[in-house]
Amino acid sequence: MASFGSAELFDIFNDEEHQNDDKHVPDEQNHVSQVLPSNLKREHAKENDPESQPKKPREDSISHPTDFQDSALFTFDKQIDRHKFESVEGCLHEIAVPRELGVVPLKPCVGKPVKEYSFVLDPFQRQAILCLENGQSVLVSAHTSAGKTVVAEYAVALSLKNKQRVIYTTPIKALSNQKYREFYEEFKDVGLITGDVTISPNASCLIMTTEILRSMLYRGSEVMREVGWVIFDEIHYMRDKDRGYVWEETIVLLPDNVHYVFLSATIPNAQQFAEWICHLHNQPCHVVYTDNRPVPLQHYVFPVGGSGLHLVVDADGNFKEELFNKAMSSLEEPSDPDYRRVKRTNIVENAGSCYRIIKMIMERNLAPVIVFSFSRKECEAYAVQAAKMDLNSEREKKLVDEVFQNAMNVLTEEDRQLPQVDNVLPLLRRGIGIHHGGLLPILKETVEILFSEGLIKALFATETFAMGLNMPARTVLFTAARKYDGVENRWLNSGEYIQMSGRAGRRGLDEKGIVILMVDERMPAAISKSLLYGKADKLVSSFHLTYNMVLNLLRVEEINPEYMLERSFFQFQNYTAIPDLCNKVKTLTQAHESIIVPREEDVRTYHSLRLTLDGLSKAYQEYVTKPEYLVPFLQPGRLVTMDKKFGWCVLLDREVKSELTGTTVTLTVLIRAAPVEAKTEGRLKLDDLKAPAAGQERQGYIIVLPGASLMAVSVVRVNVPSKVYSQQEKNQVVTALEQVEKHFSGQVPLLDPIVHMKIKDKKFEDLVKNIRIFEERLYQHPIQKDPAMTDIYSKFLQKDAIGKELIKAKVELREARSLLHLDELKNRKRVLRRLGYCTDADVIQLKGRVACELSSSDELLLTEMMFEGAFNELDAAKAVALLSCMVCDETAKEYPKLSEELTAPLRKMQDLAKKIVRVTVECKIPMDEEEYVKKFKPYLMDVVYAWCKGANFSKVCAMTDIFEGSIIRSMKRLEELLRQMCQAAKAIGSAELEQKFLEGGKMLKKDIAFAASLYL
């Protein structure tokens, strides 16, 4: 088998420091097994390994394609047929194949398989392996821990037998390291390339991150000529909004002669993905899909402060609505919004409940348990609370000590004294672990090893633990049903819940997995069903253009950016929607033409007048609800109107906040509504309430609304209690309100904006005048005199609504037929030309070649900084400190107090960022200057500078409140960026800059921040 030389590899990966890494092929001295004590037998590990468990033999055999069902699908330029294979128990097998090729029946496996297993394969595993034996690509979509790795292992074994290379890609470096460890034990001829680590680059099986494979493809590596198979693990990462486009780029760039294995969690539209692969590479692609869980799950709800666990979904997947409603009814919380706000932010009660549940789990022998929290601080708080328990025996404590000491031996004596290292050991000895992004990487790996060996009984983790790592438990506990996603505090979605709850149930060890959801507020039944009983998220493309992508594509001769756009999964998903959109346009057109409106032109002018009047009324409302006019009249008891259908309400409280953007007012009002069902009581919104019909009972409900939603304010006030909690108190206020309405015969007097509120603005006076003029025109309009006016106008509104839908559908159809992102691509090219990265003929210039080397951060700003001499006057340490702004994604509580020698370069960088924004906006790409500049965070500048100047890790940690693990993650990203900056400096021909970045990398890369992974 031909191989590629290390010189070529290092030219590809820009990593001269790793040229001797071949000697780091793992042996017993540097492998993870060395961390484990000799008296902890490997049999213990096998016990926890789902793939090593014997299974009962099954009589069903691999089926062969018969009785195909043919349905042609719309594609770009060729037809693709979809066929179903004969169904196999618990497994769906379909194929997408180019029509001109047709379906060739799969040949049964003959002779000895290239890899044998000590257990009977599941149907989906056998079907997928049959596809591999026939040399055809396959997407395996199955639940977490179902055994997808078996298919990947077989693909590797098949490649090695056929003297072909195989590439295994993962979304994260930590997963690459783990897969390297597993595959090295199995196959030996295995290498690892993750950017910061290179081991055995000439191996037949190469494990790498997807970004590395993309880099190889852009540089036209000879490696690809020898590759027979590429395995994409966790392909559902393609929907990640920040990095998903990398998968699409890579798949589009791969040659047609390569075959693929895609491993994914369950995705409902797996067949669509296979059709895209079939279209791209003109080869059949199979889908082997199973919804079958090796270990069924039971889902429980635990109401905080309630009456214990409630089974809401049984092992057969049946939703128990009665039991769910019973669980929710025990969450009796006052409707006062302040109370709920305090309750949500106070985790003491939740921590106590969490402790009781874990205690119960241990008593019922349901350990190990993974406890998922959605913030690092909560994760640690729950773990500290659980530390009252001791879950390990004395023998297990000794084993923990031995594993921990072996792992920490790679650190210096100084680093072993770090507070985080000291604090975590007592917890580990008690069988309690913590796993989140703020933890030191070496501690995270130690926790993973201890958990996999059964020495941690309760692991408190953030949701990242559920991504990729194959470490199941018997029980999974959620400490909350809500998470803050960076924008809002929202309910979990079904995809997130499925991913994390899928960790429950160990194959071969547990009959069923237990999932417990802690809830501290009433959850609407619709949301709970969607969450607990919902389906996995679809695989939706997150493809977007980047300047690095555009420049790399312009540099490659055979393809261009338009080629990438038209072949992206994003574009494919759009094209496949065309038939439905055509039908939608046709249906709406027929519906629009079928509605005949008498005197349509008259009605249209009347409607136009009403729209104008509505706009003026809205402007009027915005004026009278301005805080400077409104706030003096917002006393408790004031009658206000928030929504016409609910009539008058009573103001209970107000909250006025002054911010940089202005003053905002929030109102707490008591509103009359028909009695609400118990299951929607609790955190009420206006949409949850129904206006009472005539004669129907009315009750008072408390809701919170922005001041801008006020429609009218009365001069009248009623007496209200200082706090309104009980339904009786609410109904007393309703009675007082109805007495006022009765007294005024329904005509409750309003505050006059000019007389009472003293608004003397000329614009407001003109607004009032215009409203009167348009009201007069409206009432004098000829259509008003038509006896059938109500029916005519109703028909017109119906036709108008359909017309708007039709216009929208036509726009969607036009966009689907056109090349999406094309306008954005033109604008991005315009930016590149203005800044001198390429010519009008799309020929790459020197600046463009430099930007091609920079994929770890903002390529335009980095290139501008190099060409504007931002690094010329800085020494290596200051240059590295400045570059830390490009990779820091954390925010500290306090802005760092930077010295002038660091502040001046930061200001220069920010000025260059503003220049890029100006050019970008001129080229018709919307961009917010303040938001763009804020992206480059200086919170680690002084930390990195001190580190490069020789400060130890404990000292730099004391300089910031950012988690230790986050500091190290930023430093690793910074080291990767420095390697790219070296290559960029080489492209310019600046030996001085190259040496500066090389020296900075050496200053940065030391001690605990770059301690070797335990898996290597």
UniProtKB/TrEMBL annotation:
It is an enzyme of class 3 (hydrolase). One of its GO terms (molecular function) is RNA binding. Residues 353-557 form the Helicase C-terminal domain. GO terms for cellular component: nucleus. Its EC number is 3.6.4.13. Residues 15-30, 40-62 have a biased composition (Basic and acidic residues). SUPFAM superfamilies: P-loop containing nucleoside triphosphate hydrolases (SSF52540). Keywords: ATP-binding, Helicase, Hydrolase, Nucleotide-binding, Nucleus, Phosphoprotein. InterPro entries: Beta-barrel_MTR4, DEAD/DEAH_box_helicase_dom, Helicase_ATP-bd, Helicase_C-like, MTR4-like_stalk, P-loop_NTPase, RNA-DNA_Helicase, SKI2-like. It is found in: Nucleus. Residues 129-285 form the Helicase ATP-binding domain. GO terms for biological process: maturation of 5.8S rRNA; RNA catabolic process. Residues 1-66 are annotated as: Disordered. It comes from the Eukaryota. The keyword Metal-binding does not apply. It holds the Pfam family MTR4-like_stalk. Belongs to the helicase family. SKI2 subfamily. This is RNA helicase.
